[in-house]
Design a protein that fits this description.
Chain lengths: 129, 221
């Protein structure tokens, strides 16, 4: 009999993670033509929105690697906003749920993206439970 | 239907006989004996293994609340797919807590008293908006496949497990005349590929409301 465990993804703190590339505010970066061979090389467009009194990102639109995790993106936002290392950052999809930190942004885009982008809200405190 | 409700119980009370052995690289004063546990299929490893358990380095879960947070985020993500989050958002915080406590304490009735709400849908729709699923392939680099997929076709026909696989990982399906290379496993069994996906979602989902589907190479023993 095959048996399996429901494994919760590990909280990996990766400081050497590459930063997402900044797109132009006006236009959306089209994916390169040769990216079809490797899904992970593709980037998706993410729009970051601040909640409550959380500082607003000067640049809101980012092209992010599909394979990038929510945790990695949260760390990037924290560093960009120069938040304290002890301060938590919560990320939300559809203003309704906080995805698991090990979830890939590409999957979130496929399932919850609209108008060619994934809108993520970020907050220093729990906004939607 | 009485038979369908029995499926919910069978899934909930499924167990996996497990044997943990100490890594041979670990040096101990006396020989470490293997550790046996009957693990509930639907539970999480940190909830089941006690504090004296030899360190299992699969994940970092410093407390139960981390597991709870993960569980609730899965429930909410599933409902975002099924009901645009309307059902889970209409529930009170104590209802969410009841889902978790039911799972944590292995209380089927307590859990399903709440979970049944997440399994409802408008009759005229014929099913959920999208089916929450994850397909795991041992032969793939990706952690899993998760995409949008409707339980009913545009013509109004129920989609089956076969339809899902054909769309998401057609290589897992056996072509005519070929030997069967892969098993499609949910909760340790191979459901018939013609099973309606909506039915699978309602009855064979894990407590987190996701259908976790494993594609494994057919054993050659």
């Amino acid at each position: 009999t095959w048996g399996g465990f429901y494994v919760v993804g590990a909280y990996k703190m990766s400081d050497s993670a590459e930063s997402p590339t900044e797109t132009q505010k006006e236009e959306i970066h089209p994916p390169p033509d040769d990216s079809a061979t490797n899904d992970d090389k593709k980037k998706i467009d993410v729009l970051l929105k601040a909640v409550g009194d959380t500082p607003i990102m000067k640049t809101k639109k980012w092209a992010v690697d599909k394979g990038r995790t929510v945790q990695s993106l949260a760390q990037f936002i924290s560093r960009f906003l120069k938040l304290d290392a002890t301060e938590q950052l919560f990320i939300y999809v559809n203003q309704s749920f906080a995805p698991s930190p090990d979830q890939e942004v590409g999957v979130l885009f496929d399932c919850f993206g609209s108008d060619g982008k994934l809108v993520l809200h970020y907050c220093k405190s729990q906004a939607w439970g | 239907m009485a038979d369908d409700k029995d499926v919910l119980r069978d899934v909930w009370f499924g167990r996996i006989p497990t044997c943990f052995t100490l890594n041979p690289d670990e040096v101990t004063e006396r020989e470490a004996e293997p550790y046996y546990l009957l693990l509930p299929r639907v539970s999480y490893l940190p909830l089941v293994t006690d504090k004296n358990f030899p360190d299992v380095d699969l994940l970092h879960c410093p407390s139960n609340s981390v597991v709870e947070a993960h569980f609730m985020s899965s429930i909410k993500e599933a409902d975002a797919l099924k009901h645009k989050s309307q059902v889970v958002n209409d529930m009170q915080k104590k209802d969410h807590k009841q889902l978790w406590m039911g799972l944590q304490n292995d209380k089927f009735d307590q859990f399903w008293a709440m979970n049944r709400k997440l399994m409802e849908y408008p009759t005229e729709e014929g099913g959920f908006r999208y089916i929450p699923f994850r397909i795991y392939q041992t032969t793939s680099d990706r952690p899993f496949i998760q995409k949008l997929f409707r339980p009913v076709s545009t013509e109004g026909n129920p989609h089956t497990l076969f339809d899902l696989l054909k769309e998401m990982c057609p290589d897992a399906l056996t072509k005519d005349g070929e030997e069967k290379r892969f098993q499609v496993v949910i909760h340790g069994i191979e459901p018939l590929l013609e099973t309606p996906l909506q039915w699978l979602s309602e009855h064979l989902s894990h407590p987190d409301n996701f259908l976790h589907i494993c594609i494994i190479p057919t054993p050659t023993d």
